UniProtKB/TrEMBL annotation:
It comes from the Eukaryota. Residues 205-218 have a biased composition (Basic and acidic residues). Residues 194-204 have a biased composition (Polar residues). InterPro entries: Terpene_synth_N (IPR001906), Terpene_synth_N_sf (IPR036965), Terpene_synthase-like (IPR050148), Terpenoid_cyclase/PrenylTrfase (IPR008930). Its cofactor is Mg(2+). This is Os12g0491500 protein. Residues 194-218 are annotated as: Disordered. It comes from Oryza sativa subsp. japonica (Rice). The keyword Metal-binding does not apply.
Length: 218
């Protein structure tokens, strides 16, 4: 419930919510949740975070800030899916090198956000970076998804990213990725059978076309 604390106001236990505060002062990189925390807990770090991006944007602000790493990884993924990544080899290497440094330093903007962490792992591993699945251990159980904002929204895209990541096992003994694959596949199948796909900006037909090949061998 910490992700939707702004809707609870004084009914929320703000001391409990502040346990999720990140190094940049935000709660989940969410301006709205952080603003509520600043109002009810009078937290200086939260106020500094809000000041930093209101000074930058001046007017309307994004729903998540900062979001650079995830958006850059999505760009890399899109370039590879469309088959034109060879044109942007240097740019892609640049993005992945920066992501790898964040991974090695256990940066929270990568490690604490489920889709960012899963996509970073998948792209880094497929590009030959030296990483292990140990950092994915906190996603071993379905509760890691259920207790997140992505679980609250039944986010199909995040589930699919976790499932794809689980398929990059180097060994049958990699229980971390095996467990992630088992529960994410189960959730995806349930969403498919019950017609409860969370498609965001994409159509349900498009999402089904994307899901079926990935789950065909399950």
């Amino acid at each position: 419930m910490a992700y939707v604390s702004e809707g609870l106001g004084s009914l929320q236990d703000w001391d409990e919510v502040m346990a999720y505060q990140r190094k940049n002062g935000s709660l989940f990189n969410s301006p709205s949740t952080t603003a509520a925390a600043a109002i009810y807990s009078f937290n200086d770090s939260a106020l500094n975070y809000l000041d930093s991006f209101t000074n930058k944007f001046g007017g309307p602000v994004p729903a998540m800030y900062p979001q650079n790493i995830y958006s850059q990884l999505c760009t890399v993924d899109a370039l590879e899916r469309t088959g034109i990544s060879r044109i942007f080899v240097c740019e892609i290497r640049d993005i992945l090198d920066r992501t790898y440094r964040c991974w090695l330093h256990n940066e929270e903007d990568v490690m604490l956000d489920i889709p960012t962490c899963a996509m970073a792992f998948r792209l880094l591993r497929t590009h030959g970076y030296d990483i292990t699945s140990d950092e994915m251990a906190h996603f071993c159980k379905q509760s890691s998804f259920d207790d997140s904002i992505h679980g609250y929204l039944d986010d199909t895209k995040t589930l699919l990213e976790l499932y794809r990541t689980s398929q990059l096992r180097f060994s049958r003994e990699d229980l971390i990725l095996e467990n992630i694959g088992n529960w994410s596949a189960k959730q995806l199948k349930q969403q498919l059978s019950s017609n409860k796909l969370s498609t965001s900006a994409r159509s349900e037909t498009s999402m089904r076309e994307e899901l079926n090949p990935d789950l065909s061998h399950e």
